[in-house]
Amino acid sequence: MCRCERSVTGGFPPVEGVSCCTAEELFVETIAKDAYVYAQQGKRKTLQRKDLDNAIEAIDEFAFLEGTLD
């Protein structure tokens, strides 16, 4: 993801690039953990789109994502 940032150049990204990547990683980790709860309720170990949809609908922090997977 850092390579897509135009501000990231050379072998080592600047602090802004690292902060951006860290935030992206934390976001993906958070939504995956919340979606995994719904997968476990369905007695599955693999996340499905409906698990992400359920997490987005149920958790207020993900309200900005509503309708993005349609």
From TrEMBL:
InterPro entries noted in UniProt: CBFA_NFYB_domain (IPR003958), Histone-fold (IPR009072), Transcr_DNA_Rep_Reg (IPR050568)
Domain Transcription factor CBF/NF-Y/archaeal histone residue range list: 25-56
Keyword Magnesium (UniProt): no
Annotated localization: Nucleus
Gene Ontology terms, MF aspect: protein heterodimerization activity
Database matches in Pfam families: CBFD_NFYB_HMF
Main location: nucleus
GO BP, one annotated term: DNA-templated DNA replication
GO cellular component, one term: epsilon DNA polymerase complex
Protein's name in the database: Transcription factor CBF/NF-Y/archaeal histone domain-containing protein
Natural source organism: Patagioenas fasciata monilis
Taxonomic lineage: Eukaryota, Metazoa, Chordata, Craniata, Vertebrata
